[in-house]
Amino acid sequence: MLNWSQLPSLSALRAFCAFVQRGSVADAGAALNVSHAAISQQLRALETHLGTPLFDRSNRALELTPEGQDLARALEDGFGRIAAGVEALSHTEAHRPLNIGCTPTFASAWLMPRLAGFQADHPGIDMVMSPSPSLVDPAPGGIDVAIRYGTGDWKGLDSVELMASPVVVVGAPALFKGDTPKTPADLIRYPWLEELGTHESSSWLAGQGLQNERVLSRTEVPGNLMIDGARNGQGIAVTTRIAVAEDIEAGRLVAVFEERRDAGYHLVTKPGVHRPPLKAFLRWILREVRKT
Amino acid sequence: MLNWSQLPSLSALRAFCAFVQRGSVADAGAALNVSHAAISQQLRALETHLGTPLFDRSNRALELTPEGQDLARALEDGFGRIAAGVEALSHTEAHRPLNIGCTPTFASAWLMPRLAGFQADHPGIDMVMSPSPSLVDPAPGGIDVAIRYGTGDWKGLDSVELMASPVVVVGAPALFKGDTPKTPADLIRYPWLEELGTHESSSWLAGQGLQNERVLSRTEVPGNLMIDGARNGQGIAVTTRIAVAEDIEAGRLVAVFEERRDAGYHLVTKPGVHRPPLKAFLRWILREVRKT
DNA sequence: TTCAACATGTAATTCAAACTTACATAATGG
DNA sequence: CCATTATGTAAGTTTGAATTACATGTTGAA
User: Are B40 and B182 in the same domain?
Assistant: First the structure.
């Protein structure tokens, strides 16, 4: 086990190593971004600490004593190993792709159409989209950031609101045949679509006091297909405003109920440091949201 | 060539390495003689600098991420190499014998009789005596300390006076046969002894204004034999008071002239740091002198 | 479940190592 | 011999790192 307590000051060792590599006190200072005097003092402190002359100061230019040469070799090895380790880390980190977790709905409706812009701005950053209805924790080495729908209170995780978005209940105009439902209870008569692995429709109905009612039929479909199904008149869907904004605008879907809640999409990250690609992404997406 | 400028703070790296070895923040603090809070802050600073999470903080005890493990390996290697180099240095240094240069006369008359005391006090320190009339520079790796006769003004070297000691001119009572010389000029009639490699007798005579006189005979002998020769009545010798103090006391030699000059024996060292054995010796010899 | 013990995090202040500036000393080379 | 180059020293300042004190959160036993 390393005995730290009797190791000389690391800055002194660093100064010595820089001096050895650069060959002069002034150059060593330049390499470390400090003055020559700083190096001079560190070198003297090192000699004092070790109780050994490391230099022959008889000439103008310092020369290493045999002891100094031994130490130099050890330090160049040691610091070299350390620097290599640090650099390797930065490299692998910089190149590990950015891993984004979000719901299939949000991905196809909002994120994917804009992502090209981000990739154009940051050609060095590879990305992996992990669309998944289940809300995976952003873990180190796994998901870097998750985009989640909720109220922003994920315990143990940091979140910032991306955009508020009410829950809407939508259906195709063809489904209603002009007879648009007036109350939530009217919806019982229709077939429902639900995203695989979620229970949004039931919880919405429960929120309306209809938790015991059975709807006409309930079809579970993969997330990306739910909106498609709704558009085709296959049933009622519960989703967020953002995901169907364009469809409503274009008249392909009708929002029959809309519930103003203080919920919305959030950027959720692990507390702690963000690696540079992640920082870039967060900056970009927040700017992107502000545009609209 | 190492690029120092983008290396993280070395104390942060050290803290990280200590944490890895000890397994907890608090223990790492203990190993480095700092508080747990200091370590905590260093670790966070390191993560921030690298832009990479090094720990999984979801549990109470920190766990290394894969990146953290890579870095840990590099740091343990690197710091290990450094520590080994430093330790090797201290070891070889501590064991290199102490090299003392002094005149043969002083060695046999004053130093050798007392040296046993030093060695008894410092059993770990080996010594090499280098008696030599020529005044060798104490150089790194060579002589650690020289004991020289003079006035203390050796340019480029540090010196402290060990003891003042006038120059004396001595001869055996048998040589003078009761007819002790009264003036320096009287000494011309006697045979002279001179230490090999020195010119003390001629310069003493020159100091008395007798630079052009020829003495009866001049015999050059190795330093350690000069006093012996004088004792045996083989001639006049010029030396220092200290070297013949006991002989004069015991009546084996007579001091015919004594010149009070501000000269004496000095401890002469290279400026700069003194390694521990040298410091011990200097402390010892100065205390030894003060005893008398 | 609740509480004590443990492990780490954070904020504010204090402290000291390390740096800068300015001047000094000394060697080298034209 | 002087200009130039290289290092040393001293004094004062800066800032990185430490301490202290309190907070947060987990674990395990009562």
Answer: no
B234 and B251 fall within a common domain: yes
Distances (CA, A) of B63 to A86, A271, B23: 19, 15, 9
Pairing mode, if any, of strands A145-150 and A264-269? antiparallel
Q: Which of A191-200, A265-274, B80-89, B254-263 has the highest mean pLDDT?
A: B80-89
For chain A, how many structural domains are there in total? 3
> Contacts of residue A90 in chain B, CB cutoff 8 Å?
50-52
Whether B80 has a pLDDT exceeding 80, the answer reads yes
d(CA B277, CA A51): 10
Q: From the CA of A35, how many Å to the C1' of D14?
A: 14
Confidence of residue A136 (pLDDT cuts 50, 70, 90): low
* Per-residue pLDDT at A27 exceeds 60: yes
Is residue B263's pLDDT more than 70?
yes
Q: Are residues A185 and A42 in the same domain?
A: no
- CB-nearest to B89 from A70, A81, A86 is A70
Say if residue A270 is in the same domain as residue A136.
yes
**pLDDT recorded at residue A212:** 75
Interacting residues of A148 by C-beta distance below 8 A, sequence separation 6+: A102, A103, A135, A154, A159, A265, A266, A268
Element (H, E) at B14: helix B10-22
Cβ neighbors of B89 (< 8 A, separation 6 or more) are A50, A52, A67, A70, A71
| CATH assignment at residue A140 | 3.40.190.10
More confident residue, B90 or A284: A284
- Quick one: closest CA in B to A45, which residue? B273
Which of B 82-121 lie inside 8 A of A, CB atoms?
82-86, 88-90, 92-93
Mean pLDDT score across all residues of chain B: 86
Is residue B16 over pLDDT 60? yes
pLDDT tens track for A159-192: 888 888 888 999 999 998 878 888 888 888 899 9
Same-domain status, B223 and B188: yes
Q: State yes or no: pLDDT of A157 exceeds 80.
A: no
Residues A177, A110: one domain? no
Report the b/e string of A241-280 with b at 16+ CB within 10 A.
bbbbbebeeeebbbbbbeeeeebbbbbbbbebbbbbbbeb
Which of B38, B65, B94 represents a domain boundary (last residue)? B94
Residues 193-252 of B with CB under 8 A from A: none
Note down the domain range covering B48: 4-94
